[in-house]
Amino acid sequence: MVRVALCVLGILTLSSCNRMNRVRECQKLSSLVNQKLSQIEELAKKGRPLDYKAATQSYGALAKDVKGYAPSAPELKALSDEYASVLESIVPAVSSYAVALEGQDKQGIDEARRSLERLSKHQRSLVQRIDAYCLAP
């Protein structure tokens, strides 16, 4: 009976440790992304071509940081790699938007906006998947 109790306790402890590790890794990823996204949003609020060009560089740097993130859980690594790919895809779209805005190219602005909206939907969907993984019991 004591042996069974110790085994159960060991399983619960291992499960708890895995969950704590997952939470810690998720918090690290969240902190990495959210801090830089806040800075990018501040740039975008200004609405000037120069600010969008700076946002392009910031997105590129964030993609590199996320790609370099190495959590121990393969599931979180796959999700973070996919997120880095989405960020990498956003870079040329924001750059195109900045160029079109600077040149007052209405068609270019509209095309870049559509591209950014599509990428934003993908990003939101991916964030929901990451949240689901991170919040799972």
Summary?
By secondary structure, the chain is mainly alpha-helical. The protein has 4 helices and no strands.
CATH class: Mainly Alpha
The helical percent reads over 70%
How many strands? 0
Runs in which pLDDT lies below 50 for 5 or more consecutive residues are: 1-15
Main β-sheet, in a few words?
none
Note the main attributes of this structure:
single chain, 137 residues, mainly alpha, Four Helix Bundle (Hemerythrin (Met), subunit A), 91% helix, disordered N terminus
Q: What is the topology?
A:
Layout lengths: L1 H45 L2 H20 L5 H29 L3 H30 L2
Helix pairs in contact: 1-2, 2-3, 3-4
Could you describe the 3D structure shown?
By secondary structure, the protein is mainly α. It has a single domain (20-135), classed as Four Helix Bundle (Hemerythrin (Met), subunit A). It is built from four helices and no strands. It has helices at 2-46, 49-68, 74-102, 106-135. Helix 1 runs antiparallel to helix 2 (49-68), helix 2 runs antiparallel to helix 3 and helix 3 (74-102) packs antiparallel against helix 4. It is elongated. The chain starts with a helix and ends with a helix. The relative contact order is 0.11. Residues 1-15 have low confidence and may be disordered.
